[in-house]
Amino acid sequence: MSKAVAVVLLVLLAAGAAVAGGQAEADEAPERIVVATDATWPPMQFLNADHEIVGFDIDLIHAIAEAADFEVEIRNTAWDGIFAGLATGEYDAVISSVTITEERRRNMDFSDPYINAGQILVVPAESTGIETLDDMTGSTVGAQIGTTGAFAVQEVAGVELATYDEIGLAFEDLASGRIDGVVADTPVAANYALQNESYADSLTIVGEPFTDEHYGIAFPQGRTALVEMVNEGLAVVRADGTIDELTEKWLR
Q1: Which candidate in 11, 42, 172, 252 could, as Cys together with 46 as Cys, close a disulfide (CB 3.0–4.6 Å)?
Q2: Do 123 and 112 lie in a common domain?
Q3: Sequence-separated (6 or more) residues with CB below 8 Å from residue 122
Q4: Closest CA to 144 of 122, 176, 129
Q5: How confident is the model at residue 12 (pLDDT cuts 50, 70, 90)?
């Protein structure tokens, strides 16, 4: 072996060790994480009158952080770029009513599920004979762009999909008669159709959730120690009744 070749090999070995060491360090459980959320989905995550980010998801991640002994910073992030930011390392996790799907699992890792929140249909209160999306043939149904609700509407023949950057705009159009229905996650639908004073008398939820969906906290792929740390905290807040308390606070 020549001296030049030996030097090159030593450089390559050193570089490999540095990369491996960096990966190990990156995979350590951190003491502080940045978590992105799209604060436009009450009651899961939204801005209150004081412009504070509040909601079920926010209370949950703080409870998990306390249980697992780490600090958390919440960062309000638009939905249309939230997963791209996760992939590029702008933040460590996303908690934002994210449904766990096989497609998403190919690009990110997830915590254990923390709530089952299937899609459900909301229509004007005076509507009759409507129980499912199949009953909406010839109608226009709104959903937030890129969500499982939008995908579900697209699969029903004869139903036109109207997409929105923010789900509240869909409910505004429904209340104003510009569309015929809205599909949303059950917690979001409950907030608008049952708890929002502007819509409680004019909108109603029909039928039952027509998907079996689970929300999870999303992470960049390969952050195993981080996922395990969060799952440990999640197990504590599930066992001690915290999730049940949050369900009563925000979803009932």
Answers
A1: 42
A2: no
A3: 171, 174, 181, 182, 183, 184, 189, 192, 193, 203, 204, 205, 206
A4: 122
A5: very low
